[in-house]
User: Fold this.
Amino acid sequence: MANTDRSVEYRQIMSRAICGKGRKFCQVKHSIHPPDHIHHILGAWLINHNYESSKVGEAVEVRGTYDVNIWYSTKGNTKTDVMTETVHYAEKIPLTYYDRYTREGTVNVSTICTQTPNCVAAKLSPHKDSISIKVEKEFVVELIGETKVTVAVFPHELGDWDDKDKEDFISEMAEDDEDDTFDDLDPDLVFDDLED
Assistant:
């Protein structure tokens, strides 16, 4: 039997698809040198967050910066001031899913910061020579690239039909799908939110 006589053929097509995913919640500590006249820390917050990402092996590396603003008191708690320091960071996000058949030169990295960097703690050391801040952030990454998809092709199935026959066949298939929509549901698995 020749390859052209088969009723079903399989072909590979190239398609852009999500070929990798990853997520990471990060908690990091930074040490910042305080000004000489600091008395107490009154607050800390982060602004101007910028980042970029790139694929590194089977992971995504996110590199970025943010400005740490420390509000503090001076002169025996009679005056306040704000100090700002830019902090650089690098996070490696492991991929929980990765398609190794993706064409390497076609991959684009999409990174979303789902939790912007937030200072959850700031503490002045007992000797007032450093400020320790704890930062939380979260990233979700996706790799989008060209990959092969195998599809079934039925070259002779509809070839001899006229347009009317094709329309009838498509209509019948659509009706069959509608009729069978709920046939496979198990009524015992349906939960009623109204019952206590």
Observations:
- Residues 106 and 145 are 5 Å apart (CA to CA).
- The helical segments are 163-179.
- Residues 192-196 have pLDDT under 50 and may be disordered.
- The longest strand covers residues 9-32.
